[in-house]
Specification:
CATH class of the largest domain: Alpha Beta
Number of domains: 3
Strand order of the largest sheet: 3-2-1-7
Shape: elongated
Structural class: alpha/beta
CATH architecture of the largest domain: 3-Layer(bba) Sandwich
Bound molecules: flavin-adenine dinucleotide, iron/sulfur cluster
Distance between the termini: 77 Å
Length: 291
């Protein structure tokens, strides 16, 4: 079973825990490997939490946590110490020497190499809990990312605009992010982010007017050949061909990245504040005296 399923057994069927004599937990199941190189951050403390709850229900039972590294960061370290003091055994394994699990006639056997004893040991637990990691659902996040033009990380979580300066803002204005949509995290961390995201949204909603940046793209309809290049090039899908047959850009939505202005073959788009003649005047000012 997973830690989540064990959580439900402890909560709903404490009598089953009281009847157990041994439990084994295997950490990093499906995490920190080639297919999913991330640490899920929550599964070490989830294992320690469940081990402590089981010990509280059945102090006599043996609990073994097979781990690669224990990452009970911050104050969760206190629970790790408490687990050790209450008799939970922590046994380290390496990626190239992972524990093996066998099931025969409904009996589970777990084999692991104990680095301190230097011996292979066998467990026959009543309960085996795998600490499976958290992965982003590629399909779900892709749908949302396509719909709202949101950037994602390489492992399919949503990517904030700036990890320190704008940690709950997305690069698309008016969209904020909190919790495990961004990366694996605990409930208190998710709640803190949710408060921050709500505050950021309130800043926008409290204003009667919103000031837009000066650098937005503007189309000269008389030059536009409706070739659709800007429509396809804009990373935020803002230009469209209007009913008069030329490209139109809503200045309230434009992010001022300048991609469309650089791509337009008819030079029909200017990025205000960075117009061609302004840039050429600056170039002349800089290099005009050099002949
Ligand atoms: C085994 C395990 C044990 C844990 N133990 C602890 C613990 O002891 N303490 C702790 O602090 N944290 C723990 N955590 C972490 C905790 O679960 C998360 O921090 C928390 O759930 C994050 O909240 P969230 O609202 O960001 O995401 P979630 O709780 O995952 O909520 C997201 C919601 O969005 C819904 N959703 C997803 N996609 C869509 C969509 N496209 N449209 C509509 N709805 C959608 C989902 O169904 C879900 O209901 C544990 C996690 C695991 C896996
Ligand atoms: S939190 Fe612990 S069990 Fe989970 S991936 Fe990180 S090291 Fe492995
Ligand atoms: S790229 Fe230029 S010419 Fe083509 S549709 Fe856009 S504005 Fe018009
Ligand atoms: S300046 Fe950037 S965001 Fe604005 S319309 Fe052009 S490509 Fe899109």
């Amino acid at each position: 079973m997973t830690q989540l399923e064990l959580d439900a057994v402890i909560e709903d069927h404490p009598e089953k825990v009281r009847a157990m004599s041994q439990a084994v937990m295997i950490q990093c199941a499906g995490s920190r490997e080639k297919e999913n190189p991330n640490c899920s951050r929550i599964c070490c403390q989830a294992a320690v939490k469940n081990a402590l709850r089981m010990k509280a229900l059945n102090p006599e039972m043996d609990i073994f946590i097979l781990y690669r590294d224990i990452r009970t960061y911050g104050f969760y370290e206190d629970y790790y110490r408490e687990a050790r003091n209450s008799g939970v055994q922590f046994i380290r394994f390496s990626l190239d020497n992972k524990p093996e699990v066998w099931v025969e006639n409904d009996r589970i056997s777990v084999f692991a190499e104990d680095g301190i004893l230097g011996r292979r040991i066998q467990f026959e637990p009543d309960c085996l809990a795998l600490s499976t990691g958290m992965k982003a659902d590629d399909e779900t996040t892709e749908d949302l990312a396509m719909m709202f033009h949101l950037p994602r990380t390489g492992d399919h979580f949503f990517l904030e605009d700036h990890v320190k300066l704008r940690p709950v803002d997305m690069s698309v204005r008016g969209i904020f992010i909190a919790g495990t949509a961004r990366s694996p995290k605990t409930i208190p961390e998710s709640i803190t982010e949710a408060h921050a995201a709500a505050c950021r949204a309130q800043v926008l909603l409290a204003k009667k007017e919103i000031n837009l940046g000066a650098a937005v793209a503007k189309v000269d309809g008389t030059k536009c050949a409706a070739c659709l290049i800007c429509v396809r090039a804009c990373p935020f899908s803002i230009p469209f061909i209007n009913e008069d047959g030329y490209s139109q850009i809503d200045p309230a939505k434009c992010r001022g990245c300048g991609v469309c202005a650089a791509e337009c073959p008819a030079k029909a788009i200017q990025l205000l504040a960075y117009e061609d003649d302004q840039i050429m005047a600056k170039v002349d000012g800089l290099f005009g005296g050099l002949n």
